[in-house]
Amino acid sequence: MSCEIVVNISRSNLQVFYSQNNNDYKPFIYQKSENIPLYVFSDGNNFDIGASAKLKFQNHFTNSFSNYFDLIKDTESTFPFLDGEDKKISFLLIYTIEKIIKELFKALLISDNLSDIRDDLNLNLVFSSDISDVEINFLVNVFKDFGYNKCKCLYYSYLILNYLDDNRKIGAFKDNNSNMGSFNGYVVIDAIENNLQIDFFDSLNKKSPNLHVEGFGLASDPKVKIIAKEMFKQAADATDSLTTEETELPHLIPLAQKYANTTKAEFRVEVILTDGKSKKVKIKMRSINDKASYLSNFTKDFDLVKTVVKRSKIGNTDLALVIKNSVTSENFINNLKSTYNNIYHSNDEFVDVIELFIKNEKVINIGDFVPRPSTPEPTKPEPTKPEPTKPEPTKPEPTKPEPTKPEPTKTKPTILTPITPANNPRLVHKCSKCDKVFPTSRILDSHNCKSTRPIPKPINYPCDKCSKTFPTLRIFDKHKCSSKSGGPKPVVKPSQVHSCSKCKKTFPTSRILDNHKCSPKAGGSKSKPSGKPSQVHKCSKCDKVFPTSRILDSHNCKSTRAIPKKPTNYPCDKCSKTFPTLRIFDKHKCSASKKTVKN
Length: 599
Known about the structure:
5-stranded mixed β-sheet; 6-stranded mixed β-sheet; 7 domains; 28 strands; alpha+beta; Nucleotidyltransferase, domain 5; elongated; 20 helices
């Protein structure tokens, strides 16, 4: 009959599970409990473990041991065993597990002697997150030296991640590199002995975490811790117990957790201390709630997770957080759910997770800390015998990349020469502020010049009466000089030979001459400017001139100036007054006895 054994090891407890003939795993109850305290009493005559050894340790019996992973740091330390010899302290855990296995064999009616089947026993050690990979590797060597050649050692956080992925609870596929899972990182949060254990894995194939952080005293809700402290205080004061708060709180936390969410104003509970003394105490929840409201460490657990996530350098969407069922702080869980996208609160039992030992051998082999000899090597030469016939068609394949060799020679380097006015005479578009030259006028117009140098304005049109100067002829024409006689005389360059046939004024360009609004003196010629007979279509509002009547009709004049009335053609020969219409002239009452109309 085959028997598979799994031992769950933490710093303070052991759990043993077994499977017969590849059936489901079951927990083994030892001394009426599934959890076996990791306490040992060994004086050479007796070897006790579990609760009975814990009681002797608390009563300060000699040769009683606890904190195994602290004891093994002293490599010279020993303990007396049943054979009368002193054994290395590192063997203490092996003898403890063997004592439990012997009791298991009795319960399963297995008559084999354990010392005879060590080499063939399927013993699997699963380590909690409060045990480091250095300590795991140490125990690998200890169990191997003791003859357990089939022993496997795995990290529990690794197992639960692969169990969740295998059951499609997290990570639904494999990526292009055949990496399991859909996330770039995984954070596993566990609570052991009131301490918060946080592991970060960057892959499901990592047997140990890339990063491990421990939060001392942060595993439970601060409110629960306050209740546990109050329980200890009342019980210790009433019984004069010599136990300390530090040693008693981990044992009182589970009891306090049961009453953390009670709606009662107060409750009574019996508190049993580790030295055997007990007292029924009364806890008032109003006092507990008042103390909890002033605590500043309500977010220390959450801040610790944020630190791990920040050090992982993985974004929120690419990170999965797995919270084990040992974490009970509702405030902590709610903070995580409100911050991170991919949260999975695992209620999976340990007995379900270790089914991987039966159902997924690949995951077990990847996560095993025990180095194994490469067994598939002897089988590799067998399939390689027919392979020499296969490379024959593959010989021409290496010749295919050859035509790709001359491809790099096709690209010729191009030498870019800067465009300057010296090698491109078209660069004549120059900024008047910063003297920069541009290839086109469009680029010049879009040039956002930040030069503070003022643009020089040519002064070519001075008034000979008031000595004022004007930058353009248009502004000069609008100038109204206070002098009554004469008119302004602009300074005209020799090239400005465009003169008006009516007023004899000269202009720098023919366009300015065409737009010139001439006001000839009386008796002057009313003939059109020579050479420009089309410039007679004038707007009656703004005085703009257009080459054709069609353009004048389409002209949308926005000038608010009133349309000038017809010239006064009806003067009175007596008083020299003029009138725009004959009707108004007839109504004119002149002091002269007779009025005539000049035609």
